[in-house]
Amino acid sequence: MMPRLRRAGISVPLFSLRSTRSWGIGEIGDIPAVAGWLRAANQSALQILPLNELAPSESSPYSALSAMAIDPQFISIWMMDDGEAFEREWRAEIEHVRQTPRIDYKAVRDLKSRVLRESFERFLKDDWLLDAAR
CA torsion 54→57→60→65, rounded to 10°? Predict the structure, then answer.
């Protein structure tokens, strides 16, 4: 019988992995840095609590609206094509949510919803309606 390989790692809610780049909450874009940290510590597993979309008033990852949709609050807007432009345009609000000692779910959700809506409107106007290659 072959010996079973053991693995070690951590189980963590993504919201707790806030970085200096994230917008007030841990985001998808924060995972590679955590994975690198785990690798350096000879750990091989990273389990993340559910990332499903929550109702606006919820913060528990177990109160999801859908089993299929990722919650937009976990999107790393700074990784999008026009992420740097959004960082400049929304700097004051981004800094506010970054500086709060506890996650301000309402402020993060509101900020990201507005930015994602604006991003989609720009895409619609500049790319979709013009039938651009993008």
Answer: -30
Identify whether the C-beta of residue 14 lies closer than 8 Å to the C-beta of residue 51.
yes
Q: What is the pTM of this model?
A: 0.83
What residues contact residue 102 under an 8 Å CB cut-off, 6+ apart? none
- DSSP alpha helix (H) spans, 25-131: 31-40, 83-89, 91-99, 105-123
For residue 99, is pLDDT > 90? yes
Using one digit for the tens of pLDDT, what is the confidence trace for 41-77? 999 999 998 788 878 777 777 777 887 888 899 999 9
> DSSP readout, 43-67?
--EEEE---B-B-TT---TTSBS-S
